[in-house]
Here is the input.
Amino acid sequence: MPLKRAVLIDVDYTIKDGKTLVRLLMKGKRFFRLYDFYDPYFYIDAPISKKDEIMKASVDERGQKVSPTSVEEVTRTLFGKEKKLLKVTCLIPSAVPKLRDKLPHFPAYEYRILFGRRYMIDKNIAPFSTLIYEREGKFLKKIHRTADLPFSLRTAAFDIETYNPRGAPRPKLDPTIMISYANGKQQVITTKKIDKPFIEHAKDEKEMITQFCKLLSEQDIEVLLGYNSAVFDLPYLAARADILKVPLSLGRDGSSFRIRKMGIRETAEITGRLHIDLYSIIRFLGFIGALKVSKFTLENAYSEITGKKKYMVDRLAIHEMWDKGGEKLDTLADYSMMDAKATLELGSVVMPLEIEMSKLVRLPLFDTANATAGQLVESLLMHRSYHAGAIIPNKPGSEEAAEREKNPIQGAFVKLPQPGIYDNLAVFDFRGLYPSIITSHNIDPYTLNCDCCKQDSYVSPLGHRFCKKKKGLIPAVLADIISQRAKLKGELKALEKDSSEYTRLFARQQSLKILANSYYGYLAYARSRWYSREAGESVTAWGRHYIQETIKKAETAGFEILYGDTDSIFILLGQHSKDDALSFMKKINDALPGDMELELEAFYPRGVFVTKKGLGGKGAKKKYALIGEDGKIKIRGFELVRRDWSRIAKDTQMRVLEAILKEGSKEKAVKIVRDEIERLREGKVPLEDLTIYTQLNKSPGSYEIKSPELSAAQKAAKAGIKFDRGSLIGYVITKSGSTISDKAVVLELAQDYDPNYYIDHQVLPSVLKILKELGFSEDDLKFKGTQKGLGGFFE
DNA sequence: GCGAGCAGCGTACCT
DNA sequence: ACAGGTACGCTGCTCGCG
Here is the structure.
């Protein structure tokens, strides 16, 4: 038998003649399916004497009676201890949880694991790994080995434009007017005659949809990228296709797509292709802090991630551009084309990461693209747990999760800074603090308070003991991740930065980093399978211990410590040299256990720390600005990094900080503020620069209090502009009204602005705290002016 | 009746 | 729906003052 090779994409199953038929979606030259037989099972914690009782259990499934086909005694590790359990096998995956429910008086495990995942775990295979196998017809006969070989996927991106005379398009009334498509070749399918090379003419909307579907099958597209396509484009197309009575044949089998709810977001799955909604991925990367995107629109994500500009049209004017024709229509076509191209380009940035993450945690790409951090961590732990001979713990019930949530664990230490302007700082931080604490102290739910090393174990500052003899699952997985990443970083140095190998390995180290940083969170996550309050609180307790010890040692060595947050310490060099600081770092490192390491983040010639608002001049935590030796300014926490402050306040604050950090000129700083106040008074500032953006995290009806953003949203709703839960609302404080909420109006409807509000509540508060550090006293700033408010001081 | 002071809600940020 | 720690604006209340 000749050996074949192909890349595994995904696994699911179907039922054939009452038996489970596993379907492996594979990619050779193109996608194809392989079949295999495998029986589902779960575990019951009961003595073998209960075998007959268990064998008799039966459930109705797919119109047939399903009972266990075998019950056998096996030995596994359960909660860290060897135990005899009963492995109960049956024929139909969906019968497994039902059979378990028939036997509620026994503890049971692994009865709610999706069967495709079960198969991949048990066979030890990963998405995107190359299987080297034997086949017999359509059936997989034997996997000889797996390999990690390069491959590529035929990828296209699409986007639709819709007619929208009433603001938001209404799928029942408003047609799709353009479908753009990009995969190296680019086209816009539309019903109007437009003289552009990429235009593909269709005689009506019906034909437009058909042509789009035909493209996918003719070009044999394997990955279809969209932006918010699971929530907007695909459902919209489906609604139009339904009305027009034309099939929306997106899948390889002619089907359209299936909506699946994963977490809080809806996903759309296309049979035989990977439909990836980049919006979910960008949101995820933004949420965990791997990416900084201020606003999750395609335009914004594209320009902030690629650094390129994407021109925009006024969304509300799309129907006018369509109706007017001529140049406007040409512009609309260009815009539509650019949407698909931008989506494709965004895909080229994030897909390598998603593919590596999928391989690493062994979760199919579609699931990885829609997964939360918890699901990624859990997926890998489930695989590793199985291969360590351990039972996968169940998820907690909702009551237990609620109980855990009610009882949060203590977190990190943050040192109170003394406000001021400082010269010559050194910033150190612990490299991967929490991961390295976990591996270096073997912190795991099942190494906790072991019996085997009572005399010699790792004892946390809270008194919890962790085994020194047997490595825990989480420390083992983390140590593996950390060493893989270290190795990759070495390999990357030898590669050309624009090679495909570099892109792949860089994405791999990125995914390892994201994952490593998620384990502590998972340990303390209320819905975690491997939750342990003791383990979680030991991680943070050791974290507080090490940073506080390091601060003490630095002080003993004669340094002044300005600030520190979780894993960082800010040292004032004073009379010490840089070398003094580095030898201090070395001394610290000599005393640190295991994988733990203190690193130099950078030296900074100058930095600003400000006072907290209110209460007696104490320093503000999590707010500072530093200038590096390269002249680059690093800013944390200030209004200027927050999206819920107006651009005028943020720009002014930035310019003031630059004047101080770069030039040390308070005269210049004051002049900047004075000029901006003057511009505001004269009414010269455009409303865009005065807009405050805030997210509405609840549906507008469910707020307990009235806030400016809510009030603006309510006024907008009356004018026909809807803001749902989760939308970002931009509003301006106008002249009319008494309270600030009364004055708040969405940008689209705002006609004027209240200069006093922007002077007293935006520009001045953002710069006063900084100017105070230049020697202006609180009284100087508050009382030397006129009655008009603080602005008077600057006249 | 009015302003100061405060608690609570809500958002966005830091590590 | 991975964790906790923190700043701060706004609203709406209480309280003391006149």
Q: What stands out?
A: The two ends of chain A are 90 Å apart (CA to CA). Chain A is about 40% helix and 25% strand.
